Amino acid sequence: MAIKAVPRRLQAILWSADVKELDLEKHKGYIIHQVLRYGTLGDIQWLFGMYSKEKVRNFFLAHPSKNYTKEDLYFITHYILNLENKSIDMDDYVTSLHGPIRQRTAGNL
Fold it and tell me: Taking phi first (over 0 means left), then psi (-120 to 50 degrees means alpha), and beta for anything else, what does residue 99 get?
């Protein structure tokens, strides 16, 4: 039986850890939320191949992460996870920090 591992191509969206060191079960929360938030549709297909869409959906609902913009959350819940009929508290998922971070200067304080 082949050992399942996180593909090297996902390193860019799983930047907080070396993908060679990630354990698919132990780190599934990090993997699921990062791939949903930053991954391509191909990355999301890989995710569903690892955990199944139902497992991802259940984990997403049971373990919210303040990692999403409002727009991303809408897209993920309505088009990726098909959760449009579920009541989701946006405060559990939507971060107040998004967009480019600009260095402050005396002129724009």
Answer: left
Q: Residues 45-72, buried b or exposed e (16+ Cβ, 10 A)? A: ebbbebbeeeebbeebeeebbebbbeeb
Q: Please state, in angstroms and rounded to a whole number, the distance separating the CA atoms of residues 44 and 56.
A: 10
Q: Please tell me the pTM assigned to this model.
A: 0.83
Beta pairing partners, 94: 68
Give the pLDDT score at 99.
54
Bridge partners for 68 per DSSP: 94
- Helix then strand then coil, in percent of the chain rounded to 5, is 50, 0, 50
